[in-house]
Design goal:
heterodimer, A: 107 residues, mainly beta, 4-stranded antiparallel beta sheet
């Protein structure tokens, strides 16, 4: 099974900061990687698919990059409504696997 | 608008059984692979199972294989998860999720979840 290692596990940043989260796959997954946002008490929401494609309706301050085993998720200017836990997920092979999550807080 | 509404979550004793349901609307249900994903309290996301558009292919996480059965009724736009031999570690919020595109192992839309608690 493919393992996904996400870092950091938690992050505190100020409004307006640039925020970066990384995700590493245990083997080459090409660009078969998604990023999700989960706000407290809510279901996850797809933000980025195929490593770098922004889902319809998602603000352009969110972006993703990478291929192979190393991936990056970026919020260019953190907003108060971005407080959430973020997960990467590989879908190259079964079983689909998530990273352990990054909890983002406002400083 | 895509809607996924899960139901059936309750408190059940270890060793017991339960059937979860997910009612889908707002898209052509029988065009899409469907998934169950769970989240234990305070923990991360864990994929549980998937079923192909026609029900012909099913896959399970090792943690539930042999105990859970996924099924669908395309005439009713509904997805199900039969859960047998439940364990305390199955306690979680269970989400129904629609594939991003037909056959995908990514999750484009999620329901709000139904809570399963396994406890004596």
């Amino acid at each position: 099974d493919i393992q996904m290692t996400q870092s950091p596990s938690s992050l505190s940043a100020s409004v307006g900061d640039r925020v970066t989260i990384t995700c590493q796959a245990s083997q080459d997954i090409s660009n078969y990687l998604n990023w999700y946002q989960q706000k407290p008490g809510k279901a996850p929401k797809l933000l980025i698919y195929d490593a770098s494609n922004l889902e319809t309706g998602v603000p352009s301050r969110f972006s993703g990059s990478g291929s192979g085993t190393d991936f990056t998720f970026t919020i260019s200017s953190l907003q108060p409504e971005d407080i959430a836990t973020y997960y990467c997920q590989q879908y190259d092979n079964l079983p689909p696997a998530f990273g352990q999550g990054t909890r983002l807080e406002i400083k | 608008e895509v809607q996924l509404v899960e139901s059936g979550g309750v408190v059940v004793q270890p060793g017991g059984s339960l059937r979860l349901s997910c009612a889908a609307s707002g898209f052509t249900f029988d065009d899409y692979t469907m998934h169950w994903v769970r989240q234990a309290p305070g923990k991360g996301l864990e994929w549980v199972s998937l079923i192909s558009w026609d029900g012909g292919s099913t896959y399970y996480a090792d943690s539930v294989k042999g105990r859970f059965t996924i099924s669908r009724d395309n005439s009713k736009n509904s997805l199900y998860l039969q859960m047998n031999s439940l364990r305390t570690e199955d306690t979680a919020l269970y989400y129904c999720a629609k594939a991003i595109v037909s056959g995908s192992y990514g999750f484009g839309y999620w329901g709000q979840g139904t809570l399963v608690t396994v406890s004596s």
